[in-house]
């Protein structure tokens, strides 16, 4: 597996540099980088994405996602700055692919939301990536912990949510595109992940807060969230694993912390199976495998842990 990826890297270094990056290639490279990441080869993943992060939205998004995760783990100011800079650049890259709306359209969209059936496939992906990067930026702003940071973060989250909703509308009017474009499955996977995570997270808020959020146009339906995430995890797309990881986080941590006690260990184990086979040593995968063993009270597994 790792060897195949290395060859891919080498070949790409030879050929991809000079030509323009198309959407399909950028999705392939982004998922190659994700595989490297899951295989603990973090610097290789960054090296694959870095050369194209100014020209391709998926490279930009992947690159900033890795830096954000790093910052979220270390909390060091240096890492936070690097992540913030990469997010700013990623937003610019995504913005350059988004459909330009003139002043007339902007005014018109104040009255009726543009259903945007005129967007190209690339422009649709740009909307999705933009929303995702915005959400990461919001998360990082919250870590800043000032009241200004809180308000800015809140506004970004709202903006991101609205774009996800618009993408969902777009996906429902462009059903026939699915057969034509191999990239469309990734677009749908992204929507499932975004809408699913939003619904699930909001559903965890106290009901009074949730009512305010619903008044502001958010929706926090737990069942919708779970079913979107399951759909995303089951689709064979770039973001399948991210949907799966969100579900695992819910079943293995959030339900335990909140004491709702409805985490489904059977489902968690089934979700993890394909990834334990592909990335037997992946840090993230081992982390969840150990958590399942712990929750099941399987101390045989924990004692067998080679790190001890
Ligand atoms: C946009 O979509 C509308 C309706 O689907 C169509 O009539 C129009 O020609 C499209 N415009 C462009 C520029 O593609
Ligand atoms: C847990 O998940 C499994 C597999 O997805 C399902 O068959 C089972 O009904 C679920 N259990 C509960 C309590 O929801
Ligand atoms: C407990 O972990 C061991 C070691 O990984 C495994 O062989 C065994 O099947 C697990 N038992 C259960 C009940 O899951």
UniProtKB/TrEMBL annotation:
This is Tetratricopeptide repeat domain 39B. PANTHER family: TETRATRICOPEPTIDE REPEAT PROTEIN 39 FAMILY MEMBER (PTHR31859), TETRATRICOPEPTIDE REPEAT PROTEIN 39B (PTHR31859:SF4). It holds the Pfam family Iml2-TPR_39. It comes from the Eukaryota. Keywords: Repeat, TPR repeat.
């Amino acid at each position: 597996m790792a060897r195949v990826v290395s060859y891919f890297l080498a070949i790409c270094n030879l050929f991809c540099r000079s030509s323009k990056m198309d959407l399909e290639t950028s999705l392939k490279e982004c998922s190659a980088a994700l595989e490297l990441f899951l295989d603990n080869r973090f610097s290789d993943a960054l090296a694959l994405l870095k050369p194209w992060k100014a020209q391709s939205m998926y490279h930009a998004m992947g690159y900033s996602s890795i830096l954000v995760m790093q910052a979220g783990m270390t909390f060091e100011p240096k890492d936070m700055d690097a992540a913030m800079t990469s997010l700013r650049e990623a937003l610019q890259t995504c913005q350059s692919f988004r459909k330009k709306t003139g002043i007339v359209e902007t005014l018109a969209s104040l009255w009726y939301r543009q259903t945007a059936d005129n967007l190209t496939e690339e422009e649709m992906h740009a909307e999705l990536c933009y929303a995702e990067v915005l959400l990461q930026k919001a998360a990082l702003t919250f870590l800043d912990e000032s009241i200004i940071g809180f308000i800015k973060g809140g506004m970004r989250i709202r903006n991101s949510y609205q774009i996800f909703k618009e993408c969902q509308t777009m996906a429902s009017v462009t059903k026939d595109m699915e057969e034509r474009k191999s990239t469309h499955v990734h677009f749908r996977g992204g929507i499932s992940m975004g809408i699913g995570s939003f619904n699930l997270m909001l559903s965890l808020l106290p009901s009074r807060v949730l009512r305010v959020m619903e008044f502001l146009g958010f929706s926090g339906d737990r069942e919708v969230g779970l079913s979107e995430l399951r759909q995303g995890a089951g689709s064979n797309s770039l973001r399948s694993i991210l949907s799966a990881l969100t579900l695992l986080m819910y079943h293995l941590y959030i339900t335990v912390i909140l004491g709702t006690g409805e985490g489904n260990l059977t489902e968690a184990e089934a979700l993890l199976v394909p990834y334990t086979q592909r990335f037997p040593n992946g840090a993230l995968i081992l982390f969840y495998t150990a958590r399942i063993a712990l929750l099941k009270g399987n101390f045989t597994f924990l004692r067998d842990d080679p790190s001890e």
